[in-house]
Each structure stands twice: as C-alpha cells, then as structure tokens.
Design brief:
Elements: H1 7-18, H2 21-28, H3 32-46, E1 51-54, E2 57-60, H4 62-82, E3 95-101, H5 105-120, E4 124-130, H6 137-140, E5 146-149, E6 159-167, E7 169-173, H7 186-191, E8 193-197, H8 206-212, E9 219-224, H9 227-235, E10 240-244, E11 256-259, E12 267-274, H10 281-295
Parallel strand pairs: 3-4, 3-5, 8-9, 8-10
Antiparallel strand pairs: 1-2, 5-12, 6-12, 7-10, 7-11
C-alpha cells in the first residue's frame, strides 16, 4: 500500500472524537484549512463522508461510528509502540488515579489501599467517586481509571475486568430488633417493614423474586439509592435492610446481621478498566494494589 498515509489515522481519530473540524484542528495543532484538506483525503480514502451537516453542527455517519473505537485503539497502540521506554520508579511517580465505586467500598477497603499506595508511591493521589449508574462512558473517555461492580452481559468488550471477591446479600437490623432473636423464617422476614435499595428507584429485584416462590412479598416502607442510607434508616428504626455482606462490613458496625431466609445466588464484584490503560505500568501496579486490599 505505497500510497497509504498512516498519519491520516491520527487525524481521523481527532475528527471522530471531536465531531468538529475546528476542534479537531486545534487538537492536532493544524489550521482549519489544513484539517479540512485532511478530512477531504479521509473521505476519499474511506469512501464515506464521515461527518455530515446537521443544522449548525456536524454528526457522524454510521461508517464513522463503526470506525471510531477501532481507530482510537490503533492510534493508542501506535503511540505505545513509539513512546520511549522509561524506567518505572514508584517513588517518583506523581499521578492522580480516579476510582468509581459503590457505597461501602471506600469505607471497607479504602484504608488498606490508601496505606499501601502511600508507602510505595507517596506522590500518587487517589480520587474516589460514587457510582450513580452502570454506564461505562467515564472509563471510555479516560475520566475514570478504575471502577468496581458486577459485570453485566452487556458489558462492552473494550472493557477489561478482574474478579476481586465474592459477596452475598444479608439482612441487617438494629440491635434489639425482634429479628435478632430466634430463627428468621421467610414468613417472619416478609412481615417486617423493609428498605429497598435501587439506583434507579425500582420497586423489585432478585430478593422480591425469591420470596415469590414462597408466596410472599416485601412490604417496603422506603426505597433509597444507596447502602449507607438504608443502614442509617435501619439503625434508628425497626426497618429491615438487605445489603451486600462484605461491601458493607464497616457500615454495619453495632448492628445485627443475619443470613437471608431465602436462597439468593452469590455474586462477583470485579475491578473494571478500559483497554487503553491495560498495558500502562502505573495502572497495572494500582490494579494489583486494589486486588491485594480487597483480598486482605
């Protein structure tokens, strides 16, 4: 392919990422006219307009959407190949890593992780964000380095994952609650007032389905968006919370916990990251730190 200009791949990556000739030109440090000429060559090479006018802006064609992630990966691989090799020195590493997690993760595993990072790489700072949903855009655009969660069937193949630990749901009530005495049967459990936990505010879940097999249903007095809120309500009332056991260990201090009286499968909490960081030495080191903190 003697007439193929592989520099156009970087230009194509910028155009597809920015969706604007002007912004792509600024990113590539080219003049708008030079970027327009490059876009014309890309259109000729691909046989597709790539970006078309929609009102006052531009929108990508289906072919452009198909190419976007593939081109990004090729450019990143090329940059990694051509980047000069550097000796990795944790003591001199100065970097901020952003981790997105559900409630309870930082409270339970954060102290061990922060202590390990501070000892090995004092110039590294960890930024923890709450995980309000399961979308992976933050991993794809690089604003989040790592995320914890349960892998879904729809998880994008561009995301990599490693299992951290197995967990299960348990029931939690205040000290002195009636469910703290005697055997907790499905009937006793369902007769109480419950707190539902759902990021989307949904009124049903696996626990509801499990109780239906016994002809029972939960009477939910409230639905909240997080485990810590559910536990705070249960701590100061007769309400019953059902939360992950390992994920909420420190949040449940001083409360009574018990196995659920209906069978629910355990689930695996995984560490998730984007393919762009898979070979990054510092990122690999941090992933190892997180795994060891959770194993401890």
């Amino acid at each position: 392919m003697p007439d193929m200009d592989f520099n156009l791949l970087s230009t194509l990556d910028a155009v597809l990422a920015e969706g604007s000739v002007a912004r792509a030109a600024k990113r590539m440090r080219l003049s708008p006219s030079a970027m327009s000429r490059a876009l014309a060559r890309l259109r000729e090479s691909t046989g597709d307009p790539l970006l078309v006018r929609a009102g006052r802006g531009l929108v990508p064609t289906p072919r452009a959407l198909e190419l976007r992630d593939r081109v990004r990966q090729v450019v990143q691989d090329a940059e990694a190949i051509l980047r000069p090799a550097e000796r990795f020195d944790l003591k001199r590493l100065a970097r901020t890593f952003t981790l997105r997690t559900r409630e309870g993760f930082v409270e339970n595993f954060g102290p061990r992780l922060i202590a390990r990072v501070a000892e090995e790489a004092p110039g590294v700072r960890l930024c923890f964000l709450q995980k309000p949903n399961k979308e992976g855009a933050s991993l794809r655009d690089g604003t989040v380095d790592l995320e914890t969660g349960v892998l879904e069937a729809t998880t994008s193949p561009e995301l990599h994952a490693r299992a951290l630990f197995r967990d299960r749901y348990i029931g939690v009530v205040r000290r002195g609650h009636p469910l703290g005495r005697g055997k907790v049967t499905p009937s006793r459990y369902s007769r109480g007032k419950h707190i539902g936990v759902s990021l989307e505010g949904r009124d049903d879940g696996p626990l509801d389905e499990a109780l239906k097999a016994f002809g029972l249903e939960l009477d939910k007095a409230a639905i909240v968006g997080g485990f810590s809120t559910a536990l705070a309500l249960a701590r100061s009332s007769d309400l019953i919370a059902s939360v992950p056991e390992l994920h909420t260990g420190n949040l449940r201090a001083g409360m009574h916990s018990f196995p659920l009286p209906v069978p629910l499968p355990e689930f695996t909490v995984s560490l998730i990251w984007h393919a762009r960081f898979d070979a990054d030495t510092a990122h690999r080191w941090l992933r190892g730190c997180v795994r060891e903190a959770c194993a401890g």
